[in-house]
Amino acid sequence: MSKLKTAIAFSKNLLTTGALFQTSNKVEQAITSKVSHEKQQIIVEFGMGHGNITAEILKKIHPTSKLYSFEINEEFCDLVKEKIKDDRLIIINAGAEEIENCLDGKANAIVSSIPFTIFSKEKTAQILNLSYKHLESGAFFSQVQYSRVMRKKFEYYFDQMDIDQVSKIPPEFIYHCKKK
Question: Is residue 18 part of a domain?
Answer without folding.
Answer: no
